[in-house]
């Protein structure tokens, strides 16, 4: 504690402008500047020179935040104070004034992302801070000793507020090498984030939706339920319009596709004659996508949103979350909604299921090529992967190009290549829910 502020506190009484002011600094993104908050009785920004940046004061925004239970001990176990904030995850997502991650345009913040982050509490006197619009410029950085803690866990959560338990940076229980305690069954890695040029992420997941068919890179997509997403468009398709009922009980070749009750399925067992259904050991569900076109109407399924329309646009497969497009005269639509620019209408469909089978479906997949010796009449898939431009133009016989990378659209085999090792360490994870 500085000598000046110590003398202020030791006075028998304090003037009105010498009231305590509490300021908070919360780390949200590793390596980025923290968020600055205050919970004083004003909605104005408070400026304070915290001593970390010369004479340049920091701006602390009004925010409902409170820390309690701080206790300093000379011996024994360190106490664990708590900090409480509103239960509103959208406060820190993309587009929010509090979103400081400038490298991520699709910030999907969740409250438990704060676990492991650093929180600093500073206290000073009101005479040393500047309330914007009220006080004159003040640059003094006199303050009481700061308190720094690590957010250790979510202690409680209600519809209104979330309380986090804090720990001293030197008193994190159960910390082990390599500094992660395995408590759940879900993968903690951020999906498709690690690259040789982007290693500063909480992930080692390097899946990039492409595998080689021996000649070209082929795009493979999967839903959160690890169902393959396969191209089926009005002008180009990897699937024929053959329904299961027309087979008349004949058998299917392994890897073949069948259309039954409005859903496509892929055959898992050679010689299958049974009807396909979700959960069958002989079949797996396949979702289909088309190329996004501004003149098309895209629908949602009110009963099962997994059967919403899917589209491909600029390297990404999206699932419709709201009806879009021109519609009809009797039922007009809201107009064309570019998927990447309209998150209220579209969400990315290729999402990891956070399970071991999710890793297997992706890393141990192989590209499906037509086997003309294996029941060719019922192995319902076009002979080769197909190529399209990245926005709605058929380029059959050539190669799709996105960011300078040559790729085809494809479909996976129904079996895993167990000779391929899964990336070690991403499972099980610490999240209790995915």
List the main descriptive attributes of the protein structure presented here.
single chain; 434 residues; mainly beta; ten-stranded mixed beta sheet; eight-stranded mixed beta sheet; 26% strand; elongated; disordered C terminus
Task: Describe what this molecule looks like in 3D.
It contains two helices and 24 strands. It has 434 residues and is mainly beta. It has two domains: 3-167, no CATH class; 210-409, no CATH class. The strands form four sheets. The chain has a ten-stranded mixed sheet, with no helix packed on it. Strands 13, 14, 15, 16, 17, 18, 19 and 22 form an eight-stranded mixed sheet that branches. The chain has a four-stranded mixed sheet with strand order 11-12-24-23, with no helix packed on it. Strand 11 and strand 12 form a beta hairpin. The longest helix is centred in the C-terminal third of the chain and has 8 residues, at 356-363.
